[in-house]
Design brief:
By secondary structure, this protein is an alpha+beta fold. 29% of the residues lie in helices and 29% in strands.
Length: 188
């Protein structure tokens, strides 16, 4: 589901959310919310673990996956999803080389930010947790970094039409992945 523009509120992944947003249309294979908005430190999110702590505009991907029931499967799912997003961004949207280190998308080309030439940079943050035997996650892709974001923060600088297309691509990708996992895990 694509939501209107709003600032990220960490409460959204503090507990399961699918029935709040999807009501009786929540899927057993997982549900995803995608929206643009800022990401700011000090709003109930522990930013100490992230390389980027501020985004003026980000594409937020918030998911609930009941097929992910423990911290190991949550880590694997998060890494797989981040890797799939990185491949899509690299090939279809940004046309630049990206790699994934843990759950960080690494830009593997020189670019200039804050007057400094960067040999590589970080494009996202990713966080996951387990609540009631269900995986909850949040991935934020930096479209425009905040004033206080580190110089190595890579900005996608996508226009509104590109962000809309990327949002729909992320929704479609999530459901394609979770549907395949659901079908494989329930096949006899």
């Amino acid at each position: 589901m694509i939501l209107p523009k709003q600032n990220f509120n960490p409460e959204i992944i503090s507990k399961r959310f699918a029935h709040t947003y999807f009501k009786d249309k929540a899927l057993p294979s997982g549900n995803v919310l995608v929206f643009t908005g800022s990401l700011n430190p000090g709003k109930g999110y522990d930013f100490s673990q992230f390389a980027i702590d501020e985004m003026q505009e980000a594409l937020h991907i918030v998911y609930e996956n009941p097929l992910v029931r423990d911290s190991v499967s949550a880590a694997l799912f998060s890494h797989f999803l981040v890797s799939s997003i990185a491949n899509t961004l690299s090939q279809e949207f940004l046309k630049i080389p990206l790699s994934v280190n843990m759950d960080n998308m690494i830009v593997n080309q020189e670019y200039k930010r804050k007057g400094i030439i960067q040999s590589n940079g970080i494009l996202n943050i990713a966080r996951y947790r387990i609540d009631s035997s269900c995986g909850l996650g949040h991935i934020a892709l930096c479209n425009q970094a905040g004033e206080n974001a580190p110089a190595y923060t890579y900005e996608m600088n996508l226009n509104p039409d590109q962000l809309t297309r990327l949002s729909q691509t992320m929704v479609d990708m999530f459901y394609k992945i979770t549907d395949a996992i659901f079908l494989k895990s329930t096949a006899c």
